[in-house]
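Q: Here's a chain of 495 amino acids. Please give me its 3D structure as tokens.
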Amino acid sequence: MAKTESSTTKSPGSAPGLRRNSVGLGGTVIMSAAIMGPAVSTFFNPQFSTPFSGFATPFVYLATLVVTLIVANGIMEMARVAPSAGSFYTYITRALGPKAGFATGGLMFVAYALLGPIEIGLIGAYLQVTLKQQLGVDIPWIWIGLVPWILMVILAFEGIRGSIRVATILFCAEVVVVVAISIIVIANNPSHITAASLSPTASSHGVGGLVTGFVFAALSFVGFEGATALGAEAKRPSRTIPMGILLSTLLVGAIYLLGTWALSVGLGEKGMNKLIGSDTPWNTFVATYAPWLQWFLIIAAVSSMFAVMINSNNGIVRIVNTMGREGLLPKALGHINEKRRTPTVAVIWEGIFVVVAAVIVGIFSGGLTNPIGGNNVYGYLGFALTVAILPVYVLANWAVIVYFRKRSDFNVFRHMILPVIGGLLMLALLVGQIIENQVAPFNWIPIAILVWLVIVIVAAVVLGRTRPQALAKAGAIMATGEVEESLAAHGAPDA
């Protein structure tokens, strides 16, 4: 049945689906850009690279942007031909088979689902320390973190359009603050203005320092693929989703370059080479050059964290919902609220998981009242989600090669050379992450992820033997009405 741009109706007797044509190109850009969190990544991430790459950290971020674009190529190609709310799960299923897709779903669950609890920890810990410093009020981080958690669940219930509107406002606000502070820092340090920091020769520890700095810089770009989860709700998804990924990566990458270059200008070469992860140079910049911007910086940092939270939550609930509709998770998770056209059961389930994970990890890593507990929730679970998502990037690039090699539109550069390079780079980044984090509990987190992956693979094998029809339908729910109608005619799960 043909659908108009604003159609949200359903065929008689069919189950309701996600609201079609509700997100345009701007929404897809915000979906990916907000998950990357330009303000929080600019303010807190570069100093983890500087102990290794030092003054050359802006070059490291430039190189990371190029690598991210290479990896994004494969994801954009799959989004062009197979747009779906299932994101990587659907892409890999179509190319590598349902078992690989199911395993991908398991890894994506770890990666996306953990973004919620880490933001509870980060927002809570950051505001607990900030409020105590600024106002003399000490509120336990867990109680602070519950406020954005409640708002996240409410926005997810109300639908993607409301979430995107809020994310857009927050994103624009944080970008304005980051750019404004960067310009102020540069303007106040004219003698330090130089392009030397954009050269690899500026590295304080040579090539090895650049490589290690890249490992940490890459964390700032995780989430660039967020728009893929809007496959069922975007207007003309085969066009807007790839374009949204490209534009968001370029936009946020440009913000990172400005921010890291401003950092190098403000601190100078010696200051950059002394910077370590626990330092907060942007707070110092504001206090020195623009004290009136202090609360704007705080608000921008928190809004950036919250935008990551709501957009990543929108992504994971749609992945879980898609797997529920296809029968690979409990069917209740595939339920769509008829009035709001939102995956309400998946929203509830993910909301419970987020707060439980934050509380459990917080209790065992510093407590629920000490900001150290919140910071550790961010650090430990953040590393876990990175270890989980990097293999998905590798699989996605492999899927491009397998999927396109038998198609008439196969292109050697886009569908072979770039995916091979992207996959190898992500594999190297995964190994680098593990090598650089050998202190407990970081050293056993990869083992935990591997055990989880084995469990998921075993579950896929068992499901393939006991419910082969359900496994065979994996990835079949697509964003196009024609495909869904074909599936409905053959008894597919609720679409």
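Q: Can you summarize the key feature?
A: The CA atoms of residues 462 and 468 lie 9 Å apart.
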